[in-house]
Amino acid sequence: MSALQRKFEKVNEIIEKYGKKKSSLIAILQEIQEEYRYLPEEILTYVATAMDLSPATVFGVATFYAQFSLEPKGKYIIRVCDGTACHVRGSMPVYNAIRKKVGLKGDRKTTDDLNFTVETVSCLGACGLAPVVTINDKVYGQMTPEAIELILDQLMKEEDGQ
């Protein structure tokens, strides 16, 4: 095994799990992102070489789908719906409260400690619960700035080991 292969041992395991078929690329990238919380450029380049694909093909898939990120994401990925139903029921004050609580300023989406990433999405498919927020895979409906702050307080306590 070469030094490069050893460096990317986990990536090799993922590729072997799915096979080197082009049709496996999305599943491979999903698992790599789950492992690293994003798709590092050097790993994408390695995947292209290991799967005998062009770097353009791999980077094209990685940048086409919104689920993939070329930037590190937080442990907690918070998505705030800004679709029509959520927007008219106050999703933007909820979004602003989240950003303030986790300490995000400007156009930053992820905290320096990589605990939180905050994003808006066009629809979470739960309009009857508007405004809706997801934290990782958990759905929170009828959110208010006060309610989301309580949820974030609990997550922050868990991170501090309390």
UniProtKB/TrEMBL annotation:
Residues 1-35 form a coiled coil. Keywords: 2Fe-2S, Coiled coil, Iron, Iron-sulfur, Metal-binding. Binds 1 [2Fe-2S] cluster. CDD domains: TRX_Fd_NuoE (cd03064). It comes from the Bacteria. The keyword Transmembrane helix does not apply. PANTHER family: BIFURCATING [FEFE] HYDROGENASE GAMMA SUBUNIT, NADH-QUINONE OXIDOREDUCTASE, E SUBUNIT. This is NADH dehydrogenase. It comes from Anoxybacter fermentans.
